[in-house]
Amino acid sequence: MDERERIIREVIKVLPELAKSLNRDVALHAVAGVASGGTRVGAAQAGTAGAGAAEALSTAQVRALVHLAQYGSQTMGELAEGMQITTASATGLIKPLVALGHVARARDPNDERVVRVTLSERAQVMADQILAERRREVEAALVGMDDAACRSFLEGLERLVGRRR
């Protein structure tokens, strides 16, 4: 077996672990309660907390918050496309987040027919903390790689997810 074939086999083995790790990291951040202001974010479904009880967000809802933190205010269609889910699923994720005060809906000032969703200040802080932790993890993974190797690594990932051909 040549070196390229060995690398391809190893990449295929690593991909499921990478996906699990990324989802596990989001869940760990959620369970750890990285939200500011004493808000506890748990792995249970949102909406199950009673008045005065600690809030609970699903991993998917935390992913939605992180997505909005990275890409800013979006329509439900844009959010769905960016998260690679259906618009109905995006609506299902966002509705409880609006009720909890993590997300606000507002009409687009340029087109009143369009509704955009935006993070609350508290949710922005929580998402920023998650993104900062991910950044530390990526930086640690790239230690010892020169710029060319880092560019090649990024290009390979982009090709794998279909951003490049």
Describe the model.
- By secondary structure, this protein is mainly alpha-helical.
- It contains six helices and three strands; from the N terminus they run H-H-E-H-H-E-E-H-H.
- The chain has helices at 3-32, 59-71, 76-83, 87-99, 121-142, 147-160; strands at residues 74-75, 103-108, 111-119.
- The radius of gyration is 18 Å and the shape is elongated.
Q: What is the strand tally?
A: 3
According to CATH, the homologous superfamily is Winged helix-like DNA-binding domain superfamily/Winged helix DNA-binding domain
Topology-level CATH name? Arc Repressor Mutant, subunit A
Give the biggest sheet. Answer: 3 strands, antiparallel
Q: Structural class, from secondary structure content?
A: mainly alpha
Mean of residue pLDDT? Answer: 80
Radius of gyration: 18 Å
Helix fraction bin:
55-70%
Tertiary shape: elongated
Low-pLDDT parts are 34-54
Task: Give the number of helices.
Answer: 6
Q: Which strand order does the major sheet show?
A: 1-3-2
Strand content: 5-15%
Overall number of domains: 1
Examine the secondary-structure arrangement and name the CATH architecture.
Answer: Orthogonal Bundle
Report the top-level CATH class: Mainly Alpha
H/E order of the elements? HHEHHEEHH
Gap between N and C termini: 25 Å
